[in-house]
Structures are given as structure tokens and as C-alpha cells.
Design a protein that fits this description.
64% helix; 9 helices; 237 residues; mainly alpha; two-stranded antiparallel sheet; 2 domains; single chain
Amino acid sequence: MALDLPPTLQSEEQNMRRKIIVTPQNITSVPLSWLVVQLGKLRKQLRTIETPELREEIHLIEDFLKSTGQSKTRSAPYDEQQIVMDISVTRPGEYRALVKRFLDEYYVKRCHRDSIKEELESMTLQPALPTVTAAYGGSIGGGRTSTSPLEEAFIRKESQIELKQQILRSLEWQITPVEEALAMLKYEERELIERKFLVQRPPLDNLLIEQMHYNRQYYYEVKAAAVLKIAQRLKLV
């Protein structure tokens, strides 16, 4: 069994994940910033295609925003990546805490991704079970197919591999925005972020300053620049 979906299926899967469907059941749990963005996207879709479901979702969001006093809110400060990452536009100074939160989540998901990769590699390197032919037993009114223990074991293994592949694709999709942000950093900025945030037990700044042989002012300048670049890439500022 191949580890990757065909490109067409991958793109379809990503489109499905990015699509947000607002319903009467979940609208109260959706952040207002998401609703504003979703309303703008639906109105754009309405210019090219009109369906009862589209109209219903638009009216639902409009009525809810009106009831909360947000009917005149504009969606300009938000975009689809912010929806995917659960990001809202922040006031000056707030982005640092959000960057730390996203880096913490990224570290956990990256570790999970690496663990899944190792499990998949181990499973695919295991000797394949022998091919078996279904046994047929005669019975009145027709034959009946039975599954052998070996075939059941093979099916279970294939199902486990497919499930882990789905989890891996989901994790890859979730961590991509942060990985793209990290890729834009200079070497010293990336090293500082890795050693400060992307570890199981983040060290204190004083200890890291000593370990990296930086003077205090330079350390905080590099740290601030790196955090700001990540925030800008994730559109937190």
C-alpha cells in the first residue's frame, strides 16, 4: 500500500479540511472573526453560484452577527490561513504570547508526526503476510466466503497503516504554516527559537544566554527579531 495519496486526492483532502460549514448547532462556538471571514467568502461564492445551502448559511451568519452587534464588522484583517491556525489579528505587543503558543503546539505536533513516521517505517519494513485465497464452503442456496486468520491479520495491518497515514497527513497539514515561518529565519534566529521553544523543557533566558555565548542585549535582539518574523508570517501583526 502506498504511503501517499495521489496529488488529486491530496488537494481534495486539503480543500475539505479548509472548508468551514457553519450550522445552527456550531455557530455559537465559532469565533466571531471566523464568522466574519466566512461570510465574506460565501458572498464571493454567491456571485458565481447560488444554492439553497449557500443562501441558508449566509443568512444564518448574518442574523447571528446582527444579534451580537457585529453586523458591520469587516473581514479585511483576516484570511483563510488565520482561520486554519485559529489566529485573530492582535493588538501591538500581544503577538509574542500567541507566537509562543503556536510554537508550543508545533513542537508537540512535530514530535507526534516524527513518531508516526517511525511507526509507519517499521510497519512497512515488516515481512508481508503470505497471500491467501478465500476458502469456499458449500451450502444450500450457494457458496459462503470465509476469511482465514492470516487474511484477517493482513487486513488489520493494512487498516492500521492507512489510519496512521491519515493522521500523518493531518499533522503535516497543521504544522506547515509554522514550518514555513521557521524556514524564513536566519540561522542564528532559527537556532535560538529551536533551543528556547522547541524543546521538552524550555530553558530560562539566562541559561540560554550563557550556553549560546551571547551578550544579553544581542540575545534579546535576536529573539525579538525571530518572534516578530514568525508573527508576521502567521499574520499576527
